[in-house]
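Request: Could I get any protein with tokenized structure?
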Amino acid sequence: MLQETSPSPIRAFIDGLPKAELHLHIEGTLEPEMIFALAQRNGVKLPYASIEALREAYAFTNLQSFLDLYYAGAAVLITEQDFHDMTAAYLRRAAADKVRHVEIMFDPQTHTERGVAVATVFAGIASAMREARAHDGMSGYLILSFLRHLSEEDAFATLEAALPLREQYADLWLAVGLDSSEVGNPPEKFARIYARCKELGFHLTAHAGEEGPPPYVTGALDTLRVERIDHGIRAEQDPKLLKRLARQRTPLTVCPLSNLKLKTIEKMEDHNLARLLRQGLAVTVNSDDPAYFGGYVNDNYEAVAKALGIDEADCLALARNSITGSFLDTAAQARLLVEIEDYALSRGH
């Protein structure tokens, strides 16, 4: 009989550590099993013969090769129930990972271009988030993300379609973001839509410095006026920018397994997360698109712990950064920080 192996000491510590996840694309949580189940439910024909064949396709060469498969997988999402089931599955997994707060990115344009109403997308995701809040006490917000490979006009159309829903989802939708193909789509392309969203009182974040150069990070800060940077790892190539990010304590939502899977780094030992953390940057650890990149948030913590010498004290710092880097108000942040301190004390820190 096979014996179950117990987790390593650092993994056991990570598994019990209260934390937030700030960089999570809900469409990227679709496991192959759920993709096939939803395809069957909705009569969608997939270009893969089996779950195993689909999983084997998860060998990406860069961001674009991933996005091609990502958008194909999202085609199975049609009804409110589909969006609810996808979100509920992720939230159950996150709760098991001791995620106490999550800020979920979603891409309406991926669905509206297929004829799915934006109201359907909101309703399904929101109902699962409200259930998780009632059942597990997990708080969460929604980040409506614009697709940067599309036009700014398309982003405006998406915003205008969603705004009538704002009051109905005021407890959840309080931020906008920018994702999809970075190279060739600089932040300045979306200056007007971000100015409009700032006028409307939304929190602002954007992907920058994943595959794009340091000026994309600077552009996100200065032109889009974002409060945090999603990814941001290439900022290290500009020492002046790095000092600015450290001085301003701009949160960076780093996704180590994503960086590895998309060939941003060759091996995890090459990742700069530990260097950034030790230079005083407000680094956080997140899973990005966990179904595609081989791990949820605790797997990402464990990967950098093993490869980069991230220890328990570092994990505590990363968890604290995930709370202070969130869009929660000061009182809610304080409550979660107390949970982290109580856990630290219980583990001898």
Remarks:
- The longest helix spans residues 118-136.
- The chain has a mean pLDDT of 96.
